[in-house]
Amino acid sequence: MGVIQGYDLTVKSSLHRITVKVFTLSTEVKNLLKGILYEVTVAAFNGGGQGPTSSVFVVQREEEVPSIAPQNLMAHATSFSSIAIAWNAIPLEQANGLLKGYIVTLDGSDSYLFVCANQCQMTIRGLKKSKVYKLQVAGFTSKGQGVFSDYVMTMTNLDGCRALGMEDRNISDSQINASSEFGTIHLAHHARLNNGDFWAPDGSDVNPWLQIDLKKKQTVTKIATQGRSLQNGDFNQWVTKYSLKYSQDMISFDSYKQFGVVKI
């Protein structure tokens, strides 16, 4: 039979597995996640190899509330009466148990919105027009709610928005510039809605852009584009995707983002 030299101790869950060699009749396994069921087995070994594995013993650390708030909250208006919000999931190590979901709250409201644990974003509807909202998010387990995140602020779209002037020419030709122009007919200032002509970049322009100087700080809630369509159907052309940049000095530009990602 041989002399027992030690024991192979295995601790496993649906998330990870730990196997250690033990040379005494007791040991301590650290860093087990709270609220997670672990199956523990032991098998003795000697010079001839490992013996039979013991029956399974189930252990579980007691759950607690999450120890941290969701991180990197981001929000933006999606209409006059709705806001989209997103955040990073609470890591397993800080969830302190099986995360059942998230609580989203708006300032000045006694109601809470609940989101399933496998979702880290939601759209809140039925809000007031042109109103600034402060939002917070917290995770919860069966033991209760964890700490709320810092506030993130955003405003629903303005009521009574109006076109800024690309169609009615309130924006003058001199306020419109481009990276290049196709010949002398498809000029930058022709880039207007329902215009008889159109703007087109030079064929060698690999990074074309159109720039509009609004002269003062403006709130832009929507952008419309319009393709080229000739009456005889030839050369139907339009932009399929674009990104947006903005600046206050016409020198340094920032990309428009949603949830931290450049919106295309």
Topology:
Elements: E1 6-12, E2 17-22, E3 37-46, E4 49-53, E5 57-60, E6 71-77, E7 83-88, H1 92-95, E8 101-106, E9 112-116, E10 121-124, E11 132-141, E12 144-145, E13 152-155, E14 176-178, E15 210-212, E16 245-246, E17 254-255, E18 257-258, E19 261-262
Antiparallel strand pairs: 1-2, 1-3, 3-4, 3-5, 6-7, 7-10, 8-9, 8-11, 11-12, 11-13, 14-15, 16-17, 18-19
3D architecture notes:
The protein is built from 1 helix and 19 strands. The protein has one helix at residues 92-95, and strands at residues 6-12, 17-22, 37-46, 49-53, 57-60, 71-77, 83-88, 101-106, 112-116, 121-124, 132-141, 144-145, 152-155, 176-178, 210-212, 245-246, 254-255, 257-258, 261-262. The strands form 6 sheets. Strands 1, 2, 3, 4 and 5 form a 5-stranded antiparallel sheet that branches. Strands 8, 9, 11, 12 and 13 form a 5-stranded antiparallel sheet that branches. It has a 3-stranded antiparallel sheet with strand order 6-7-10, with no helix packed on it. Strand 18 (257-258) and strand 19 (261-262) form a beta hairpin. The longest helix has 4 residues, at 92-95. The protein starts with 5 loop residues before the first strand and ends with a strand. The mean pLDDT is 87.
